[in-house]
Amino acid sequence: MGWSIKLGRIFGIHIKVHLTFFLILVWGAFSYGGSAGPLYGLIVTLALFTLVLLHELGHSLAAKGYGIPVNDITLLPIGGVARLARMPEKPIQELVVALAGPAVNVILAAIALPLVLGLGVAQGGTLSLRLWPQPGWLGLLTFLLSANLSLAAFNLIPAFPMDGGRVFRALLGLFLDFQRATRIAVTLGRVLAVGLGVFGLLNGQFFMAIIALFIFNASGQEGQAVAARGLLRQVAVGQSWSRNTAALPPYATVGQVASMAMSGYGSDFAVLDPQSRQLLGVVQRADVARALRLGQWQRSMAELMRPVQNVPSVTLHTNLAEVQDKLADASSRIAAVYDGPFFQGLISLEDVQRAFQFLARGGGYTGQRLGWETSG
Ligand SMILES: [Zn+2]
């Protein structure tokens, strides 16, 4: 995501903030500060974003538990986004991943509640769940309690891209096939968005109307992305892919393959054992280009290659949606195609995209979404 800077890593996941986030901190410092001043406002705003981060970590750790890599978490002024390498499509997995975010907020609220009650009784004050906090520990804890409850409730609205949309689809998916479950969930999301939009316009809540428009669009995109996956699932590697992979011996040098790489013959190279014809590793055209720029003409393919154990393998019968998932899981652009024990060639993410574009031509679908974003 452009315009973001890295804050650090938690559980191996890169945490980033969008640059506009700093404007929100300034805005929050003054609007949440109240009588206590901007420093208190800043603390409250940072606390709110910490809750959002913990929410996204909930999704991320659940996804990682299913072996789905998490690219990064970005904090935006409107909330957070955890980018998963792929969608969990088993309903039970999607259910757990989608619920894990709001569950974090519910647990935090459950921790805050007794503290708020205890402090409130000790201070003899009247309790109210107002979002604008009174300065002090009680005010901050009350704010955390209400913010956690609001985050959980808002995210459980059953419309994409909210978690609730995914929860609803996953529950339907326990009884219906994924495509049908998605169509129903998309329709419900759109109906809710129209309702919210009309309500917002009638009540002069234009911000709400804009959010409704955003939800309406996001629901449609989810429907298209799932329809695209449905197309890819119908096609096997053997039906869609050409076998003209360029094969090289491990001792071939960058200088020797330069003309092949630059003339565009094949996009990637399979490094084969000259005797057994078994795959040893894969060299991407970009790796050759980099070596050429650095003047490393003598480097061998054996040095440049990604070794075979890090290259995902598929068969001629694997469908393209599965290929996409295997590539995402291995953070690889390329998979090796086998027929039984015999290496057949390479298939790349671009091959999958090309097949998809061919299938979808005329279908009105233009974008392609390879990742999965959860917002909230
Ligand atoms: Zn969420």
Low-confidence sequence ranges: 362-376
As for the number of domains, it is 3
User: Class by helix and strand content?
Assistant: alpha/beta
**Roughly what fraction of the amino acids lie in strands?**
15-25%
Number of helices in the DSSP assignment: 13
Bound small molecules, by name, code or SMILES, are: zinc ion
Question: How would you explain this protein's 3D organization?
Answer:
- The chain has 376 residues and is an alpha/beta fold.
- The protein folds into three domains: 1-156, no CATH class; 158-233, no CATH class; 237-360, Roll (CBS-domain), CATH 3.10.580.
- The protein contains 13 helices and twelve strands.
- A five-stranded mixed beta sheet has the order 1-2-3-4-12, with helices on one face. It has a four-stranded mixed beta sheet with strand order 5-6-7-8.
- A hairpin with a 2-residue loop joins strand 10 and strand 11 (342-348).
- Helix 3 (91-123) runs antiparallel to helix 4 and helix 6 (178-202) runs antiparallel to helix 7 (206-233).
- It is elongated, with a radius of gyration of 25 Å.
- The protein starts with a strand and ends with a strand.
- Residues 362-376 have low confidence and may be disordered.
- The structure holds zinc ion.
- Zinc ion binds at residues 55, 59, 101, 155, 163, 374, 376.
- Residues 55, 59, 101, 155, 163, 374, 376 line the site of zinc ion (ZN).
